[in-house]
Amino acid sequence: MRRAYLWGLAVFLLSALPALAGEAKLDTGNTAWMLTASALVVFMTVPGLALFYGGLDKSKSILNTIAMSFVAFSIVSITWLVVGYSIAYGDDMGGFMGNPFQYIFAKGISGIGDAGYPALLDVMFQLTFATITTALVSGSLVGRMKFSAWIIFCVLWSIIVYPPIAHWVWGGGFLSNHGALDFAGGTVVHINAGIAGLVGALILGRRKDTSLIPNNVPLVALGAGILWFGWFGFNAGSALAADTIAVYAMLNTTIATSAAVLGWMFTEWMSAGKPTVVGISSGIIAGLVAITPAAGFVNPIGAIFIGVIASVFAYFAVAKLKPALGYDDALDVFGIHGVAGIVGAILTGVFADPAVNGSAGLLYGNAKQVLIQIEGVIATIVYSGVMTAIIVFIAKALTGLRVSEEQEIEGLDSAQHGEKAYDL
What we know:
By secondary structure, the chain is an all-alpha fold. It is 71% helix and 1% strand. The longest helix has 32 residues, at 368-399.
């Protein structure tokens, strides 16, 4: 009995050594959840976004559009590992960016983080955000951009634009210090990508045929459904733990998106006479975008309001504002991601419920939060817009931006890739 007792005591002490030494213990539940969330966000980009954009584009350029998403994911995965993560999450440098040399090639990232999962898993999870943000921009540029120019854009934009803005909000930068709320990427991802897409489209110029006649509507619906499914990893995963906040984020994502679908559908029905499947799919994306900054801060009632309001704004941006101003945002990245992202970011400052995650918005006595949210929106618009313009002009100087008129008429699938999607 004495020997058994001593052996039991020895096992207990050995198992307690990490805790006694101040080391975090591996939480297998949180680790499994963050692995799953990372995989879900990868699924959003390849194939979700690729199919959604591909179905929306013309049949003669569907493969080029899909390739833009696939290649963006591949390029940004490398740039994120090399330097992007370090810029976003390295030690703060003046509130603007992290130390770019601190985590080069994930150097020095090891052990278990505070949430109980390996620190290296955070590199993977945040990588998926950087990749889809860059890929989103392509929707504004399809049908006339050289593939070589897109490659240059992905490399530069994923280093110069995305990581600093991520640092502002999530890495200890100035917006974080000012109290800005962005649970999963309203400013970092969607406003950022929407403004970049708009700026790129303005510099590229209009296509010869600016009509939006999707070549495959079922593909659009499939892509939208995959994005909705993958978005649970995007939003609920941003809780960084399998906890109550993740549950709120998942529920709010479902509720807001459902409300946005109905908001877009009925608005289109009243405005254009018929509810379209492309419109319903667009409402899905608008709702997902709008709830992203608010997912872990609002209650489900607030999520309903955010979804409905954002979908109506996004619909009129796509159906009325774009034709009135004449810019050629081919797949409505600005109209949906940019506009719904702006609305969602500001409304987070209105509906944030302290009972959910400790942060109060306007409706709970903190009017200042709306001003802080607006600060984040403006900072993102200005930085992303200016730096995107510089990057696009660099790509233009190196390879040229647009394909020739003959190649545009022929279609980018055959002109840029030597293949066609359909053998008819």
